[in-house]
Design goal:
Blueprint lengths: L4 E4 L4 H8 L6 E4 L17 E4 L7 H9 L4 E4 L9 H4 L4 E3 L6 H16 L2 H9 L17 E5 L3 H12 L3 E5 L10 E2 L2 H7 L2 E4 L13 H4 L6 E5 L8 H9 L3 E6 L21 H8 L3 E3 L8 H19 L7 E2 L1 H4 L13
Parallel strand pairs: 1-2, 1-3, 3-4, 4-5, 6-7, 6-9, 7-8, 9-10, 10-11, 11-12
Antiparallel strand pairs: 5-13
This protein binds 1,4-dihydronicotinamide adenine dinucleotide.
1,4-dihydronicotinamide adenine dinucleotide binds next to α4 and α6.
């Protein structure tokens, strides 16, 4: 019997390294191109594709893939805000890796906070230049300060444990509070007004887009640090820039950015950055940006490769798809009644 083929879009050397280590019951065709309606024909002859966070999985891409005989998209990530689920339903099974290392992301959120607060990048740049001045490098002690955690799922709860280890008081907002764990939940407005540090760990949905809006920023404690390792569109970037300029926000640590799709994961050094908003953010001494690398650990890459291969193996074998998601799943209507599949 012929082995099925899978087109892997938007792959980097570190992806290939980990997928090449795992025996897969299908052939892999790696492509550097992102998945878009225009690149969908690259999947000709493949029964499934594998995609990533910034691929364009709009209705046009879904239809193009389906017309080439593709029956499933295996996302190499947990988030799926870039997928048009309505368009995909009944045509493409959408598989994902629900959790690959919540610790990796939570630890990166704390790394951003510590680096921002203690001005580590500026300090390191100075000492490389034999400049040992401390002027302008003063931070604050985190012990005793209040961390406001928005979203207390897997990553949010890891971040809470880390904050508690630093002796911080933790308050949280989540419409679906976690049971146990002794988390103090507050209404969002109260969290905004009490927190010295706000860290975002909720998914991007219609309800969370711009959860950090101009209105929300008018309620924060002056000097608050905002950390975002979730999705760029959770923050209204223009409003954040205004709040940074006004000194209302003391600093921002961003691993994600609203308009990151055409920029992050690529090397533009030596070129003029055409995104003026990102250039402005980057120029601010109290903003620290990393390019969606919070997950980037050996443990997460191994887990992503292992679970993705398992998701695709189950799909090709006609088995139930534990990690399938569809637009009915979110509303609780989908019970995966079709042999453990969403349709
Ligand atoms: P999860 O599904 O375990 O937890 C998400 C939590 O957010 C849930 O408790 C949910 O009830 C809560 N939530 C939903 N709507 C909310 C709202 N309106 N306000 C506050 N909370 C709300 O997800 P997990 O694994 O903790 O991941 C969180 C997010 O982290 C993902 O959606 C993804 O966007 C991001 N992520 C970023 C990575 C990176 O490398 N930067 C890597 C992996 C995930």
């Amino acid at each position: 019997m012929n082995r099925p083929s899978v087109a892997f879009y938007d792959t980097k050397p570190y992806d290939r390294e980990w997928f090449d280590r795992i025996p897969a019951p299908f052939d892999i065709h790696y492509f550097e191109s992102k998945l878009t309606p225009d690149t969908a024909p690259l999947a000709e002859g493949c029964s499934a594709v594998c995609a990533f966070v910034n691929d364009d999985i709009s209705a046009a891409a879904v239809d193009a893939l389906a017309s080439h005989g593709v029956g499933a998209i295996a996302m190499r990530c947990a988030g799926y805000s870039n997928v048009d689920f309505r368009a995909a339903y009944g045509k493409l099974h959408i598989l994902r890796v629900p959790a690959y290392s919540p610790h990796a992301v939570a630890e990166h959120a704390m790394a951003l906070l510590l680096s921002l607060n203690r001005k580590i990048p500026r300090a390191a740049n100075r000492t490389r230049d034999f400049n040992y001045s401390l002027v302008g490098l003063c931070g604050m002690v985190l012990n005793g300060k209040t961390a406001g955690v928005i979203g207390t799922g897997r990553i949010g709860r890891c971040f809470i444990d880390i904050c508690r280890g630093f002796g911080m008081r933790v308050v949280a907002y989540d419409p679906y509070p976690a049971e146990g764990g002794g988390i103090e939940y507050l209404p969002l407005d109260e969290l905004l007004s009490q927190a010295d540090v706000i860290s975002l760990h909720c998914p991007l949905t219609e309800g969370t887009r711009h959860i950090i809006s101009r209105d929300a920023l008018s309620k924060v404690k002056p000097g608050v640090f905002i950390i975002n390792t979730s999705r760029g569109e959770l923050i209204d970037t223009e409003a954040l820039i205004e709040a940074l300029d006004a000194g209302v926000v003391g600093g921002a640590g961003l691993d994600v950015y609203e308009e990151e799709a055409d920029l992050f994961f690529e090397d533009f050094s030596g070129q003029i950055l055409l995104d003026d908003t990102l250039a402005l953010l980057t120029s601010k001494p109290n903003v620290l940006i990393t390019a969606h690398q919070a997950f980037l650990t050996e443990e997460a890459l191994e887990a992503i490769a292992r679970v993705t291969v398992e998701n695709l193996r189950a799909y090709f074998n006609g088995e139930p798809l534990q990690n399938e998601v569809c637009y009915h799943c979110g509303g609780g209507e989908c019970r995966k009644k079709q042999n453990g599949r969403c349709f």
